[in-house]
Amino acid sequence: MRLIGNNKVKKTNIGFLDMATDKVTGVAGKENYAVARISRELPNRSAIGFLFTNRQSTGDQPPSEEYGRTFALDGRVGFGEYQQVSAYVARTDNSDADRDQYSYRASYSYDSADWLLTAGYTEVGEGFDPQVGFLRRMAYRKPDATIFRRYRTKNSKHIQELRPHVSYRGFWDFDGFQESGFLHMDNHIEWKKGQEFHTAINLTREGVKEAFEIFPGIMVPPDTYDNSEVALVAFSNRGAPVSFEMRTTVGGFFGGDRINISPGVRIRFGDNFNTELMWRYNNIDLPEGDFETNLGLWRLSYSFTPRMFLESLVQYNDVDDNLSANLRFGWLQTANVGLFVVYNDIQEIGPLGPPRPDRSLTVKLSWQFDALR
Fold first, then answer.
1. Under DSSP, is residue 65 helix (H, G, I), strand (E, B) or coil?
2. Residue 95 pLDDT > 80, yes or no?
3. Is residue 372 situated within a structural domain?
4. Structural domain that includes position 269
5. Nearest residue to 318 (alpha-carbon basis) of 349, 343, 344, 290
């Protein structure tokens, strides 16, 4: 069961969601989830907001799993026409954690027609655990920065814009060990007919504390791996009925080498029908062994009307040797509100025995109304 509320009073946004789940033996207990959000728009691209989430056990879970709460305050302040400072601070209060349940970020950006400059710092404490939602990464310190130049040519007959840029992001744990780093140096060349060509050099670092299996039977041992790679991207005019793209990356990879090739084609008929076919190939050569991977994707989207659509994604993965499909039908009242029907199907097609399909069908109906009138 789920209850959702959303309303805007002048420049104040108020949102609320409450959901109750039943017990599924071996998967999850009986619980209640709640999310509340309020934000206020201020002059000159500024704003302030507050977020509260709560997971509360309503069954027979042990005391260590009784509850999980998150409190967060965020805001941004605009300076002049191009500058902005943003920040958030958050804290969790969980029944099974007792220290470092905090997270915060501060960032600066300058975004004009010619330049994009950003700098930021994020920290996530070792005990920070938002149990309503998720984190891509736990317990880290992360600085990041970008210098991006947009240059419109005036005398060229063919080139529309040049976009040289450099960016960096790095992750450290609280013992000072660098878990990963990524320095990206690139230039985008855009032609007046819509084609683009990107040339990049990436300097990467991956710190591995514990050995892990990257491919069946092949382990990556603990070490710090510094590598460099070249990335090339080219695509034709994406506004045309048919467009093509090619992405290639060649360079070091966990003490060995990697070649990644990703060709793709997109087809569009008017404003109603779009489809995309892509293939991602990896050839990996490591000291511990060599392997290849293939991933094929087929996306399709058809709009019957501006409010009614059908979308599908079919994917083949040769590592797991399975074929998966996702089909989604939507009939909208407003944005993300209406009738949704979602079908998922995963088929194992390898030689290890008969297919074991995993299928699900979800029907969601939501309706939005103004409870304050």
1. helix
2. no
3. no
4. 78-365
5. 349
Q: Is the dihedral of CA 138, 142, 133, 211 positive or negative?
A: negative
Q: Is 38 a domain residue?
A: no
Joined tokens for residue 144:
């990041």
Work out how many domains the chain is built from and give that number: 1
The pTM assigned to this predicted structure is 0.87
With contact defined as beta carbons under 8 Å apart, do 293 and 282 qualify? Answer: yes
- 125, exposed or middle or buried, with CB in 10 Å at 0-12, 13-18, 19+? buried
Q: Is residue 51 in a domain?
A: no
pLDDT computed for residue 27 by the predictor:
66
**What is the rounded distance in angstroms from the CA atom of residue 117 to the CA atom of residue 226?**
26
CB atoms within 10 A of CB 158: 10
**Cα dist from 26 to 30, 61, 225, whole Å:** 12, 12, 39
63 is a domain residue: no
Short-list 310, 315, 368, CA closest to 337: 368
User: For the chain, how big is the Rg over CA atoms in Å?
Assistant: 24
Average the pLDDT over 174-186 and give the result.
97
206-242 residue pLDDT tens: 999 999 999 999 999 999 999 999 999 999 999 899 9
- Amino acid 217 reads G
**Domain of residue 114, CATH code:** 2.40.160
d(CA 57, CA 64) in angstroms, rounded, equals: 10
pLDDT at 371 over 70: no
pLDDT of residue 38: 95
